[in-house]
Description:
Mean pLDDT: 88
Helix content: over 70%
Number of helices: 4
Radius of gyration: 18 Å
Number of strands: 0
Order of helices and strands: HHHH
Amino acid sequence: MEAVEAGTGAPNRRGLPFWANYQVGLLAAQFLFGMAVNLLGFGDETKGTAKVFSTVFLVIHFVIALALLVGAIVALVQARKSAPRFNGLALTGVIVVALTVIVGFATMAADNDWLSYLMAVGFIVSLMLYVSMLVRLNRTVAPPTA
């Protein structure tokens, strides 16, 4: 089920499949930068070059979190426009990503390992949602005719 651009009949390359794939890619990057920060430590746990890299990686982790939130909202809009049967998955994606971002901020504020664990749970659930969406979208795309 590939979205079509209004008035042109051409495939919309920025439709729901694009945004679901975008989310999966960002989640992979988010995982790697989060693990880098966890490996290096942050705040008073590090010194020197490790502290610089940890801070840079944490800022990138934060920026990716915001991009994930925007991507989740855009995926929901795309689902509503071109693939209404995916509204539930897309809405759940927005909720889970938003809650995970909030838990991420709380993790930094409280320095609590349980909140960090909840952030990891949010990552796994988000990844499962968007991979599931991609798989289901690929099943609905008709094979090209000869």
